[in-house]
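Entry — protein

Goal — fold tokens:
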Amino acid sequence: MQIFFILGIPGLLALTALLVKKQRIFGILNSIGYLVVLCESALLLKKVVLSGGVKLCGDFIHLDTLSAFFIFVISVVAFAATLYSVGYIRKDVETGIISEKKAMVYYVLFNLFCCSMLFVPAVNNLGILWVAIEMTTLISTFLVGFYSSKESVEAAWKYIIICSVGIIFALLGTILFSYAFSLSGGTSSLNWSSMVASAANMDKNILKVAFIFILVGYGTKAGLAPMHTWLPDAHSQAVSPISALLSGVLLKTAIYAILRFGTIIIKGVGFAYFAHLMILFGMISLAISCGFILVQKDLKRLLAYSSIEHMGIICIGFGLGAPLAVAGALLHVFNHAVVKSLMFFGAGNVVSAYKKHNMNAIKGIIKAMPFTGVMLLLGMFALTGFPPFSIFISEMLIIISAFSNGSYLIASLLLLFLAVIFGAFIYHFGEMLFGNIPKGMAPAGEPLSGKIAFLFLFFQICVLGIVLLFIKKDLLWIAQNLFQA
């Protein structure tokens, strides 16, 4: 029953936002709603792990441990974003950037966006999954262009055009998978659970071509290079809580879709084909993001290119295929979601206070905004994989697995790119965090709800990300069974 609360509460909150006129009151109500969603998603994950799966509505909803895990990750970031939105949107209203009415439009779109993302891992039908991912694009487009500035509108158009082209490729891939399934004697069903069971009998050549369409299509939505060109613009122009959702969990829904088709490919064609493509796109993403991170001048675009980097790391982990690497990739999905959300919240505070995106004009953050400055400093070390933060654990699992399997070139390139990116982040954030406050700027106050959101995420970066590593019964079980479903 938890899944009905998880999907129903965002929908109910979207309707409620049309009736409640005060954004401050609704912001608190919204946070309470997503706290319930988070609790229900944790209970759902526990239930699915213990029972092995949940089927509802005639197998329309089919939840295994992987889908429950992704629902939990989405719920964590969505709850943090609701907390941060309370103070962030209130400040926008008080300063006249948006009206009270537009603030309520934000909350309607926010809830529809979260509902569509939560729906993606819940459905069994790959055609409905495609529809749900397309819905996330359509809804989030309005949130990217929310401020109606020239830059945000251009970013929104670029986002919807590029992602819609990508999603067409994903649709073609889905059709080809369905065709291969029908040739094998299967039914007209598009359920991934049915396709996996019959994958060994499907035409291998059709499956190979179909998966390329899937990887390019959903890889565009995931921000994998070279299909990533929409991502820096969209993430830099969106409302900051939405930037956190885009980077923290929206990209992961596309990764989830790739994995669902990947299990079919592995059963039908073999693991090597899946692995080579995932590692190839992962390495390209790492290399391209590394170059742009070095020369970046815009704070939010810097974090956007970092998302491309981490999507590459996740793909490499899944591509290596060993249980340790897959466990590292799953852990990285969670770790990156919480760390990047914290960083986008910090960037939102900085841009709001300094009225600038250009990092060369941002100095003395720790003096101007002590709490945000400290969180950004710690978050920067966490994001670049510095011990003892959680991303260090997941990255090391992937690197150790690569060395253990004899993939020395992959491991060496990973270490090289990570070292260069670490140096670039130290340089960029060192320039921004320290130094003197610009003339005429006074230290800024920070809302309590925003501080709670920071601390909620930072707790997980320090504690839960590491604790998850030791829940071997859950995490390693998922890793060992993911490609053998």
Observations:
- Residues 126-484 form one domain.
